[in-house]
Specification:
This protein has three helices and two strands. The two termini are 12 Å apart. It has 89 residues and is α+β, with helices and mostly antiparallel strands. The chain has helices at residues 7-10, 18-32, 37-46, and strands at 63-71, 74-83. It has a two-stranded antiparallel ribbon. Helix 2 (18-32) packs antiparallel against helix 3 (37-46). It has one domain (7-83).
Length: 89
């Protein structure tokens, strides 16, 4: 079970309107060099009841583990290891 995000963490996922999402998708497709691709993405976004490769969701993209060692009574950070879980996990 994932923890409830703090208000600061929640700010990473700001609220947006459907019109703002459409503008962002169209801008991205245009920047990528194929403005017509936006129509394909938007078709999938408009009907979330049908699972498609473009159904939006929030998922964990990486797990960071800070490795520390106890030296002379104090915890000292040694490194941080990043794991990237497979999509859908």
């Amino acid at each position: 079970m994932l923890p409830v995000p703090s208000p600061e963490q929640q700010e990473c996922f700001p609220d947006y309107t459907p019109a703002e999402l459409e503008r962002a998708v169209r801008a991205h497709a245009h920047k990528a060099g194929d403005a017509t691709e936006a129509d394909w993405w938007l078709a999938g976004l408009r009907d979330p009841s049908v699972p498609t490769p473009v159904t939006p969701f929030v998922a964990i993209s990486a797990v960071r583990v800070k490795v520390e060692v106890l030296r002379k009574g104090r915890w000292v950070e040694v490194t941080t290891v990043v794991f990237q879980p497979p999509m859908g996990c």
